[in-house]
Specification:
This protein is 7% helix and 34% strand. The protein is mainly β. The radius of gyration is 30 Å and the shape is elongated.
Length: 446
């Protein structure tokens, strides 16, 4: 009985350890969440207008005369850098006359009471949502006197140098609908690499009185499914001119923001790496990048590459806890510089870097034991062509059988890194290798 009890106790201990491990693993998973942006309001922040500089939007979606200056949403404009928001990369934005920018591909033109329209309730309500929006002051706004051309009232500007560029969008002398004497000046700024979002306020003429204001200040996610919204989906300023934000709908703020104040929303910062990239499965057109899963709060790992060491381009985003990524579609015989980052909701870590060239178009390496004439035998799945450089590596055994076209090669290496073998012929059929180069060979069979 005592032995049985001990065994049972040991079993329960094992089960407990397994459950604890599984629970810990689940807890490690990080779901991108709007709640993870920290909101802080500051005062006495200088307001620097980008007017008369900056760029007017290239086009607006609503071209119906009077309403052009009232309810309108621009065509997508280039940000000028990769901006990571809630764990996703964006390169374009749209701006609304009603005091918000968004990263959505939705085609809405900005009219009506639905998504992206003049009523701000859809910003924080499930279904038909004004989504992926940053709203310094979402209200029923118009250009000055509903007559000022859009280019005179809304502009954007890219400043700084990579990797620390800033996009500024400014609304200048905006009015509240029906109150043409109001002149509101405010900006939204987004920051490369850090993922910070700033709302800044200049002169905010409140001459129409508080009852004419009914605005929202905050940020939201791609979808709002909860009713009320989940913390992962929405962060709204609870009352005017404070730093308290929560997940509930606050779309009737009555007191305008004070001049020279700033609301800053900051995403979590990921840990910086402590190891380098390594490369495996290198072929003519692909390679696998390998790294240590160093971050604990990442939304994923993001990969960029360059062929000149100056201009880097986004390649792919790997999942949370990933430790490798196979990259395809590369040019053969080309040296690539790589940068790998952990990304949270919006902030990039320092980069892990590495350099690796793809194989030249005439280079082939064995992937496994098999027949020479089968693609699966070779890395990349392609059979060596005439005048290729061929390496049989590891402990692979490759057989040139009678059905194989005579492999006339430039160079042949057998045995690199292990006891590889090359079998030539299986039915007394002669095979011609007129010139080959063998660095070393553990065993040669004919």
């Amino acid at each position: 009985m005592s032995i049985r009890a001990s065994a049972q106790t040991g079993l329960w201990r094992c089960l407990f350890v397994v459950v604890m491990c599984l629970t810990h693993r689940v807890a490690d998973a990080q779901v991108p969440s709007i709640a993870n942006y920290a909101a802080v309001r500051s005062t006495a922040v200088p307001y620097v207008s980008i007017f008369p500089g900056g760029l007017a939007c290239t086009a607006w979606r609503n071209n119906t005369g009077f309403l052009e200056q009232d309810d309108n949403r621009s065509d997508a404009q280039d940000i000028g850098f990769d901006f990571w928001y809630n764990g996703t990369r964006y390169t374009q934005f749209s701006v609304s006359t009603n005091g918000f920018i968004d990263f959505s591909t939705a085609a809405n033109i900005g009219t009506g009471t639905g998504a992206y329209g003049y009523v701000n309730a859809p910003f924080s309500a499930a279904n038909n949502t004004t989504a992926l929006a940053l709203a310094p002051m979402y209200d029923d706004l118009t250009t000055l006197g509903v007559t000022d051309p859009l280019g005179n009232s809304i502009r954007y500007q890219l400043t700084g140098t990579a990797p620390n560029r800033v996009l500024t969008v400014e609304w200048k002398d905006m009015s509240i609908y029906g109150q043409p004497t109001v002149a509101l000046n405010f900006q939204a700024k987004i920051y490369e690499t850090s993922g910070i979002i700033d709302f800044l306020y200049g002169s905010m003429n409140p001459s129409s009185g508080q009852n004419y204001y009914s605005y929202t200040c905050g940020i939201n996610a791609a979808d709002i499914l909860g009713n009320p919204p989940l913390a992962t989906e929405l962060k709204c300023q609870v009352s005017s001119n404070n730093s308290t934000f929560d997940r509930f709908r606050h779309d009737t703020l009555r007191v305008p923001p004070t001049a020279n104040c700033r609301v800053r929303l900051t995403p979590p910062v990921p840990a910086n790496p402590g190891s380098a990239l390594s490369f495996t499965a290198v072929t003519q057109n692909s390679m696998t990048l390998n790294w240590t899963n160093w971050a604990a709060n990442e939304a994923g790992y993001v990969i960029y590459n360059s062929t000149d060491g100056v201009n880097y381009f986004f390649v792919t985003q790997a999942a949370q806890n990933a430790t490798s990524a196979n990259i395809t579609g590369l040019a053969s015989g080309t040296t690539y510089q790589w940068r790998l980052y952990a990304v949270t909701e919006g902030c990039l870590s320092n980069a892990v870097t590495g350099t690796q060239a793809t194989l030249s178009s005439g280079t082939f390496i064995s992937a496994q034991t098999g027949f020479w004439d089968q693609g699966a035998t070779w890395v990349g799945g392609v059979v060596p062509a005439v005048n290729s450089d061929v390496t049989i590596t590891g402990t692979h055994s490759v057989t040139i059988r009678s059905t194989t076209v005579n492999p006339v090669l430039s160079n042949l290496t057998v045995g690199q890194g292990g006891a590889a073998r090359l079998y030539i012929g299986s039915n007394n059929t002669a095979k011609t290798l007129p010139h080959y180069y063998r660095q070393y060979c553990e065993q040669w069979n004919t």
